[in-house]
Design brief:
Blueprint lengths: L21 E3 L5 E3 H6 L12 E2 L5 H6 L17
Antiparallel strand pairs: 1-2, 1-3
InterPro entries: DUF1272
Organism: Sphingomonas jeddahensis
Protein name: DUF1272 domain-containing protein
Length: 80
Amino acid sequence: MLEMRPDCERCGVDLPADEGGAFICSFECTFCADCVDALDERCPNCGGELLDRPARVGAALTKYPASTQRHHSPPAGGRG
């Protein structure tokens, strides 16, 4: 089952589990559409392809909630 991470690892924007716009690699590294474009659709962590993450909605989201652990790591210098 997908972890459904709540944020973009590159810029920190929120990525709700019940909405589109999130992209993941096979390790579930998670990025927003703007960052995926900037990354040329390749995961900077593993080099894998970044693909649309499916949404989790309704009863499935209630029974299996998304992760609340954020993964954004601002680059050195505090911007990002």
